[in-house]
Amino acid sequence: MTMPRTGAQILVDQLARQQVTDIFCVPGESYLAVLDSLHDAAIRVTVCRQEGSAAMMADTVGRLTGRPGICFVTRGPGATNASPGVHIAHQDSVPMILFVGQIERGARERGAFQELDYRAVFGSMTKWTTEIDDAARIPEILSRAFHVAMSGRPGPVVIALPEDMLVEPAEVADAPFVKPAETAPSLSAMAELQKRLWASKSPVMLLGGTRWTEAAVRTVTRFAERFELPVAVSFRRQMLFPADHANFAGDLGIGPNPALLKRIRESDLVLAVGARIGEMPSQGYTLFGIPGDGSRLVHVHPGAEELGRVYAPAQAIHADPASFAAALEGVHPPRVIPWKGQAEEAHASFLGWTTPKPIPGRLQMGDVMLHLREALPQDTILCNGAGNYATWLHRYYRFNRYQTQSAPTSGSMGYGVPAAVGAKRLFPERTVVAFAGDGCFLMNGQDFATAVQYGLPIIVLVIDNGMYGTIRMHQEREYPGRVSATALKNPDFAAYARAFGGHGERVETTAEFAPAFERARASGKPAILHCLIDPEAITPTTTITALREAAKA
Predict the structure, then answer these.
(1) pLDDT tens digits for 468-478?
(2) Where are the alpha helices (DSSP H) in 508-543?
(3) CATH number of the CATH domain containing 80
(4) Which residues are registered as beta bridge partners of 45?
């Protein structure tokens, strides 16, 4: 027998039924009833300083767990402030649910205070956007939301909550726990894949996307060993294969190893698992013909709509990565492997490509990354936003475990700090390090206060070159010497950390970094290391002067 409950209480009870442990929010009067119902719930509430940060924290939970991260914001400006996090989740295939407080039902379409048409605003960047008109339908709609967010190609769902609906009583049963719909490959599909592999002379495996598990990563690693396959990973998906493994060929990020690109272009079979092979990993859609002749791509993806969307595959396999990985146990290598030795060549090339080279200035970011490789525990979670500074992390750090990376493939700035807060909230026992450029940090750096408020000792490396570096790089290529709108005058970020109650230090030389990092760890506080690099060091491989001279040549 069910008892009458308010819509807000029904909603919170559904979140509990879905085993939600954390929500991230900026409070608003439009959903006060939910906040009241959370007062006595066994769900941890993290109050943030900006809605975009809250949504990015929820995205990180979805990214690291595979279940939707949960965010609550208020109507109008609260919702639009959260939109960057929704866009990231959409581009990156991350399950997330954003709940938005809404005006009363009777005031709709009058241009009421902070009114928005949420279906129109969010419809192009979500898997589903809806509004709940009847409190009795909350279990039904939340059950559907969890299914939609996790199944197929994962992504965000936005649900608007009229404030009068939240205080409306209803008698309704709770929904059951939702598991994502698994899509397993057929036996005939795996038999066809085995035949294609046996006929190949130079196969390459490419891993990407979401819906992976730790067990799936282990299984794919064993498969690569048995077949002696070179394995590459897609842009900012390095945690899908151990970088120190002898079969690892590198990542298809920004400015990848030319030898890896050559290997993929010349391969007669590319087994792409989970990856959409979007613009960044495909190097501007140049790695494969569009749609191509359908001769060499085996594309495995959980979303049927992604198969054949851009590329014509030789074989399309509709399967999620975990189910596909399990099916690989029944695929056997040929007795004689024609491509023997290619994995070792690819890994040797990766090692050479990821050996740091000197850059201008007293702080050598390559040496910083070498220190972090040695000093950080293997389960450390590394987070970053967007900017050239992230190139040092992705090129020189070695991700060797699943669930250790949170970075936007959408290239969104401001992601690193909130991602680190979300990751540390979820895994308080693990080390969490965020990378941010000087421009990137100040987009959501105010949520360093959230880390201080909840005693989350994240370590933030602010890489400061006094500019929007990526844009300046493009500017020097296209309009050499004509600097416009890319220079920045920055605060003392170490003092910023101390002002919030955290630990802060300034790092100007390579020798200063390691002891400063250890002091930050030992402080037990959220910390910022303000790392100043020479503006000339625009990327790991070139300088502003070199870009300018090349553009003028």
Answers:
(1) 999 999 999 99
(2) 510-523
(3) 3.40.50.970
(4) 23
